[in-house]
Amino acid sequence: MATEGKKTVLIVEDDEFLRSLAAKRLEKDGLAVKDAINGEMALKIIKEETFDLILLDLLLPGTDGFAVLEQARQMATGREVPIVVFSNLGEKADIERAKKLGANDFLVKANFTLDDIVDKIHSYLK
């Protein structure tokens, strides 16, 4: 889904404030942003569109981020796209599980600022 030549990021986050903040910041940096508020919506969007990167929360209503990650990696449109997990879960087991399911990176929300997240996203989009 190359929007007018812009790189496109899908933000999967149920927290409206955080989702909006991240989207505005990425758009200010010249990226196109699409968002999903739950796992079901994310999977539908991933199936129908292509993205340059997916920023994925794990604690989502309904289908959780682990299931989204696993199912996205089985879809043609989600197989190769970098997926950066951004979650409150920070236990070693959660990080290992996400990486095993195909996460390219894992950021614990409490340890990163919005600037850090944006820098990480840009590092994958180069």
From TrEMBL:
Query: What Gene3D superfamilies does the database record attribute to this sequence?
Result: 3.40.50.2300
GO annotation (BP), single = phosphorelay signal transduction system
Report keywords, A-Z.
Answer: Phosphoprotein
SMART domains in the cross-refs: REC
Source domain of life is Bacteria
Q: Which SUPFAM superfamilies does the entry mention? A: CheY-like (SSF52172)
Q: Reply yes or no: does the keyword Membrane apply.
A: no
Pfam families tied to this protein: Response_reg
Q: InterPro entries attached here?
A: Bact_response_regulator, CheY-like_superfamily, Sig_transdc_resp-reg_receiver
Q: Which residues carry this modification: 4-aspartylphosphate?
A: D57
Q: Which residues form the Response regulatory domain?
A: 8-124
- Tell me the protein's name: Response regulator
| Organism per entry | Candidatus Vogelbacteria bacterium CG10_big_fil_rev_8_21_14_0_10_50_13
